[in-house]
Structures are given as C-alpha cells and as structure tokens.
Amino acid sequence: MHNRISIVLLVALATTFLGELKMNPLGGDSFRFSLGTAAFFFGIIWFPSVPPLIIGLVVGWFIVLFRTTLDMFVLGSSWNQQFFLHLPAAAFYFIFAFVLTVTNIRARLDSPIQGGLIGAFGELAGNYGELLFRCVLGESYSLGWRSFLILALFALLRSFFVIGMYNMLMVRQLRAVGMEQQNRMERLLLINTNLYEEGIWLRKSMVHIEEITRDSYELYRRLIQQVKRGHLDKESANLALTVAQEVHEVKKDCQRILAGLSKIIRQEELTPRTPLSEIVSLVVRANSQYAEMLGKKIRFSSHVDLDLATNRVYGLLSILNNLVANSVEAIEREGHIAIETALINEHVEFLVCDDGPGIQEEDRNLIFQPGFTTKYDTQGNPSTGIGLSHVSHIVSTFAGHLLMERTDGRTMFRVRIPTANLLGKESEHEAAILYH
C-alpha cells in the first residue's frame, strides 16, 4: 500500500512540474500542451501495480489544486476564478486514464504500434473532453479540422515518444536481467564442474578405502591367529578390528556423499547441448578473472572453428579450465594464452598454448604423475600437483589423448577426443569409473 502511494505521488509530481513546460497551440492561456502528458502516460504503463483510474483521479486533482494555488499567488486573482479555470484539466487526465483502462493498454505493450495508437487516441479523447468542458464553462475554442489535426499530431508524437522510451528501457532492463542470469548460470556451471572433479577424486579415494578396509580385516584375522597361539594379547587384535570398523564407517559416509554428488553430476544428461564456442568463452572469462586476481596481465585469445555442441559439459569444462588455469599460474607476470579447436580425423582437438617459461625436458615425463609440480607460491610452498594428472584422468574417460609439446618458445597441450564421445552421453566406461 505504501509503495502504491509513493508511485502515485511520484507520477503526480512529475506530471505537475513537467506540465509547466507548456505551449498554447489553440490560443488562450488555459488549454496547454506540455511534457506533463508524456510523464503521465509513461507513469501509467511503467507502474502496473496501480490502476490507471486512480492515477488519473489523483493527478487530475493534484494539478488543479497546484495550478490554482500558483496562479492565485502569482496573479493575485481569486481562488474560485482560478479553480474553475483549471478544473477542466482534471477531466483530461480522468478521460485519458479511462481510455487506457478500457483498452487495457498494459496488456498491449508487446505491440509498440498498437500501444502508441491507443495512447494517442486516449490523449486525443482527453483533449476533446477538456475543450468541451471549457466551452461549457464559457471559454471559446475552435473545434474544426485544423484543431483536430494539431491535437492528433501532438498526440501521436508524444504517444510514440513515450512508447519508444518505454521499450528502450525495457530492452535495457531485460538485457541486464539476461546478463545477470547468464553470470549466475556460469557460476553454477563452474560449481557443478568442481563437484564433478571432486566426485572423481572421491571415487578414487573410496577405492583406496576399500583396499585399506580389506587389509585391516586381514590384519585382524592374522592377529587372532597369533592370539590363539598365545603370541599376542587380544587387545591388539580388538584394536585392529576397531580400526577396520571405523574405516568401514568412513567408507559408508563417502558413499553417501558420492551418491549426492552423482545426482548433481548426472543432471548433465538433462541439460541442453552447449556449443563448444560457449564453453571456451566461459573458460576464457573465468581465467581472465583468475589472472586479474593474481595480479597478472595476460591476454587471452580463442578460435573455435567448429559448429559443434555437446552435453558433456562438466568433463570438457573441467579439462579446459584446468589446462588454462595451469597456464595462468605458469606465466610470471605478463603473457598470452590461446585456445584453439579443430576437427582432425573424426577427433576434436583442443589446443591450449602459453608463452610461459615452459617445462624442463627432464620433467616432461613426470608432469602427469599425481603430486608432481614445478610451481611454488611466494612463500615457497609447492602446489598440489594434481591438476594435470586430473586432466589426464578425465581425458581418458572420454577415450581421448593428452599430449604436451614445446615449440618456438610456447608450451602447448593437445587434447584429442573422439567426436562421437562429445556428441553422445557418457559412456558406460566413464560411468563405471565415476559412479560405481
């Protein structure tokens, strides 16, 4: 309720003050053309929460009282004289609002031409209503064809000006909403990609947990044999059994977490296909922000020479994002990173190049091993060393190949994935690796 009152007062004030920017095309001082009419029309179509008739009644009486008071003090005339002089203006705004209500203007704004014509007709009807009211009160106005053409011309100009401004602002608003929604979807996509990566590592950890559980039970059985022979006290065997049981509980917790992650990851099958160009653009935007956060000046370029879409978004995004992030971290201060795609012998090739310091010859056979790293932070702490091994693992789930080359002072990572594996859903082999 409070919001509606504020809207009505805002429209009334805007209409009143803009109404003082006036001209009198038909002669006389009481009937005027002004920008107030445009403000009134715009307020009705921009604020759909308030009925047009309420706006028309409030604005009409507000303008009558304002103009009467203003002229009474400025001209020194009586209240009654000025009140009846400006009273017909209230008829204009009421008739205008009535026409917009009957024609349901707010439901017809999708058609700018139709909305503009309705607005012009409403203004024309309001003008004639005001002129007739003034003639009844004794004022003299010509209502011939010349007057009609002047009124119609001004009505059309102001109406389509308002409709044009309304559509311009709506397009701008929709673009802003669209950009916000796109940014939100990109953030969610990156979050899901991180969950995809965590699901892979959690699955690998569960394999190790299962092995530890089996070894723990085997140790317990051997200790029991030693207890039976009297070579060991039973407390040691019970301790081994307790460890095995605790590890088993950890395994069950991991299974529950993995089940939740799997539900999110498997939603990828329900998502529409995403063009490779959009995936590459998302990687570039995300890593541009990452480079800025690290205080590095890195120029990114991309070239996608394929009109191809895939629903294997999370895996592919994880591969490219890790490779490009690795390049960002490798560049010391300034550099260039390029991403290219091409179709080669029924394979899609992704090429990530950077002009960083590169990798030593003796280290190139080790870079895909878990834990191996050549990057250290400012305090001398090594990175985790799992990025490239993680990329290599995901590429293998696509039945693809990952190669590293160093030519002309540039480090290049080539990822080749069979086109059929990008176009189709996840293979049974990948599902077995990730979820079973």
Q: What are the salient characteristics of this protein?
A:
single chain, 436 residues, five-stranded mixed sheet, two-stranded antiparallel sheet, 12 helices, 9 strands, 12% strand, disordered C terminus
Walkthrough of the structure:
The protein folds into 3 domains: 2-143, no CATH class; 188-270; 274-435, Heat Shock Protein 90 (2-Layer Sandwich). The chain has 12 helices and 9 strands. It has helices at 2-18, 36-46, 52-75, 79-102, 112-136, 145-228, 234-265, 276-293, 313-330, 387-397, 419-423, 428-435, and strands at 22-23, 33-34, 274-275, 297-304, 309-310, 334-344, 347-354, 401-407, 410-418. The strands form 3 sheets. The protein has a 5-stranded mixed sheet with strand order 4-6-7-9-8. It has a two-stranded antiparallel ribbon with strand order 1-2. A two-stranded antiparallel sheet has the order 3-5. Strand 6 (334-344) and strand 7 form a beta hairpin. Helix 1 crosses helix 3, helix 4 runs antiparallel to helix 5 (112-136) and helix 5 crosses helix 6 (145-228). The longest helix has 84 residues, at 145-228. It is elongated and about 125 Å long.
Quick structural summary:
This is histidine kinase. With 436 residues, the chain is an alpha+beta fold. 64% of the residues lie in helices and 12% in strands.
Q: What is the fold's blueprint, element by element?
A:
Blueprint: H1 2-18, E1 22-23, E2 33-34, H2 36-46, H3 52-75, H4 79-102, H5 112-136, H6 145-228, H7 234-265, E3 274-275, H8 276-293, E4 297-304, E5 309-310, H9 313-330, E6 334-344, E7 347-354, H10 387-397, E8 401-407, E9 410-418, H11 419-423, H12 428-435
Helix pairs in contact: 1-2, 1-3, 2-6, 3-4, 4-5, 5-6, 6-7, 6-9, 8-9, 9-10
